[in-house]
Amino acid sequence: MSKQLKTEIIAVGTELLLGQIANTNAQWLSEQLSLYGINVYSHAVVGDNLMRVEEIFSQAHQRSDVIIVTGGLGPTEDDMTREAFQRISELDMEEHTPSMKKIEKFYEKQGTEMTPNNRRQARVFQGAQVLQNNAGMAPGMIVSHQNKSWIFLPGVPREMKQMTKDHVIPYLKKLTGEEMIIKSMVLRFIGIGESRLEHELSDIIQAQTNPTIAPLAQNNGVIIRLTAKERSKEKANLLLQRIKEQILSRVGTYFYGIDEESIESKVFSLLKAQKKRIAAAESLTGGMFTEKLISIEGASQVCLGGIVCYDTNVKKNLLGVSSETIKSKGTVSEECAVEMAQNICKKLDAHIGISFTGVAGPEPVEGHDAGTVYIAICTEDGDQRVEKMSFQGGRNTIRKRATLKGFELIFEFLK
């Protein structure tokens, strides 16, 4: 029977609070622990202030079984992780001789004088399991105090990761008693909002136990994260596959990929499978659609190129949109979008042409508010479709949403 451990991660460092660096340590640690069925209940970040570090340590000691602390083990006065823990535990510290010798040897090899404050890095709590740092100098520690496990790791990501793999994971696996596997799968959808997706799956979501089901809205569509917990990868994968099939039987029309698969890579795959090549005429998107498509390796097989026709004269003189259309309907219109898509298809000898025109903002254009967008798709066979959208947000948000909508329309078209 495995023991369920309530685990939390605390990152110490004012630079994290100031946004000077991102707290990638907590993200990485959570990912690694989840692979072994160890639940992380919370993340915390605290600055280099002794009273605040002591306060958050006291709170963690009350609520968690395992507390993993990263950072604050260096040689300077603002490295106060040890001091804060000593204040809540009243444990004595001592100099760890093997670590001190390693630090001295480092400075000897560098040919530089070691300053006295570097001795701080070799200080450990009496009775602690000292974790050798195979990627740096400051050792880590595992301290058992009042039936709680405290794990102290360096804040440097390379050192923290190596120490976790070498020492922390084996320790926690023994602590839990039985290895559990947590396996996740991300299902990606486009063309459906988060609220609608949740409505369609409400009974499945309400009945969730294992796997768990979490819908989330993202900039490139909506995802559902499935998370299964089992004693083997095979059993976890079986649970994920069953719930995936149940979900797709309801909303499979909007499904386009799994895990890290992007909508542009899906469109690339469909174009390649159907032996079709596309070209784009882009006004407000300014080449965003083409850039995302050609970011896929092998894109030359499906993407001929495009024209960024931002100026009206470029639409007329280079792309060939008729003066009559621009005069009578304007550049922000269904008619202009269709001509743009038709003409790019002909000029680049493509199977499919797609066009984007509209108002990115902030000011209205031709009587149209910011966010008004027309996207047209035309084929060499004369098939055509055009959609008008109204997007909210700032200038670049509108451009990004228009680009994403273009991929959605092409995806639907190719299906």
From TrEMBL:
GO terms for molecular function: nicotinamide-nucleotide amidase activity. It comes from the Bacteria. Residues 8-174 form the MoaB/Mog domain. Keywords: Hydrolase. This is Putative competence-damage inducible protein. Belongs to the CinA family. SUPFAM superfamilies: CinA-like (SSF142433), Molybdenum cofactor biosynthesis proteins (SSF53218). Transmembrane segments: none annotated.
